[in-house]
Give the backbone structure.
Amino acid sequence: MSRSKTLRVGIVQQSCTDDREHNLAVSTAGIRDAVARGAQLVLLQELHTGLYFCQHESTDLFDLAEAIPGPSTETLGALAKELDIVIVSSLFERRAPGLYHNTAVVLERDGTIAGKYRKMHIPDDPGYYEKFYFTPGDLGFQPIQTSLGKLGVLVCWDQWYPEAARLMALAGADLLFYPTAIGWNPEDTAEEKTRQRDAWITIQRSHAVANGLPVCVANRTGLEPDPTGTLKGAQFWGSSFAVGPQGEFLAQAGSENGEVLVVDIDLARSENVRRWWPFLRDRRIDAYGDLTKRFRD
């Protein structure tokens, strides 16, 4: 049996307003809360500095984007250094005029940027018009090395793709992280809401099982109206959680309010689980060539 190596992770679930400074203050308070309870690493939700603006399309909203490094990474980097922790943030990145990404940034314990990941899978659905705002990522599925381990950071819509989780695992990720902004259409039935949330939880637990890795998910909460009045808005369902390498729940937040989870993750358990269930050993990589096709017509 491998020796235990425990990492204490904080997960901040929050509701957001159109006041960037307020949102960042809420994130900061959540981080400090988690650290007061022993967290060494804190995961923030997708686009935590503002409202989920992709409910409609407007060129004016590109003004919300910022450079990386920039104001948010300076603030969070200083906080990471002060508290001697690693922070996983999620920002609207302005890469160049007319070129924007949905980008996760990892701040190291000394305040520097350890690395970033640009969201690869970009949705385009009613209320989630992300293709208008975000250029698909071009950094690939590359884990980010930190002083606390190798972090496989993915973002929201990436959570539905087993390929993304697998490639992070194959590159040596110690954990998988998903900053997320997903919710219900308030007009959906209670049964449909339950199906959607259960599917969201199940697919991410399956990534833990298939890869023998812990998975941590931070999702926003609260009702955010559609500014155009076309739809009823998005009721973000919270439910942030952490699971171990067999998909076992370690912690889970509620669906309606902001909450800070703090959970102990035994990183050595992945070694044990992969010895019991050697899925990576038994993969038939010689037979998977067609996975690079759009469809097997």
